[in-house]
Amino acid sequence: MFRDNQRAEGNFFQLLDAGVAFCFKHLSLSGRITNHSLEREEQLEVPYHALREALINALCHRHWERYNLTISLAIYDDRIEIASPGIFPPQITPENIKEPHESYPHNLKVAEALYRMTYLENWGSGARRIIDACQAQGVETPTWSSDGGFVTVTFKRPDFKSDIIENDKGDKKITEEGKYPLSTPQAPLKYPSSRIAHSKNGRFLHDNEEYGGCM
User: Is the confidence at residue 193, as pLDDT, over 50?
Assistant: First the structure.
């Protein structure tokens, strides 16, 4: 059982906005006063910049010729998974992607356009920026995997609690009361500042590439 099942349609930028909004909707947001500023600094339990970079990479490097498959974003009790249709380039593995490497974009024109628009920085540096953002926030670095059909990046959720049974009971009660709907038709385009992770079960965001390319 999952609390929220959303499907987003649109171009690259709309899908990126929908994915980031989905994270802000369902992940915990905390704030604290630091020595750097008198204002409260707020951050998601998993760094926003890491999640955004992973979504950009998923959209940029997906294999668009596999039109019957979709990118997915799933938020579970203990982890976040972003899966993109395709495989690693022959030179890249789940192990060495964390090390400095050359870029081998599957969609060269898309990558060039995103680089010119500053959505991508130095080619081949995306994984490193994801890792750096997690380490800067004290969050466990993600892992990459491939099953031959999808490339998946998995983030561990630091706020995960082990009492899953009690959480499931609470989720079932809230769902039966109708407090939160089981699905919503479309992810919002902007990022709601929700400070509470409303569910302990997985939620999914799927893109629908009816329009072909992402540009």
Answer: no
Question: What's the pLDDT tens digit per position in 33-74?
Answer: 666 666 667 789 999 999 999 999 999 999 988 888 899 999
pLDDT for position 16: 94
Strands 29-34 and 37-44: antiparallel
Q: Tell me the two tokens of residue 105.
A: 């974009």
Q: Are strands 72-75 and 5-9 parallel, antiparallel or unpaired?
A: unpaired
Residue-level pLDDT at 126: 85
Structure tokens at 86: 């395709």
What's this model's pTM, rounded to 2 decimal places? Answer: 0.72
Concatenated DSSP letters for the chain? Answer: --S-EEEEES-HHHHHHHHHHHHHHHS-EEEEEETTEEEEEEEESS-HHHHHHHHHHHHHHS-TT-TT---EEEE-SSEEEEEEES---TT--TTGGGS------SSHHHHHHHHHTTSS-STT-HHHHHHHHHHHTTPPPPEEEE-SSEEEEEEE-TT--S-HHHHHHHHHHHHHHTSS-SB-SS--SS-----S---SS-EEEEEE-TTSS--
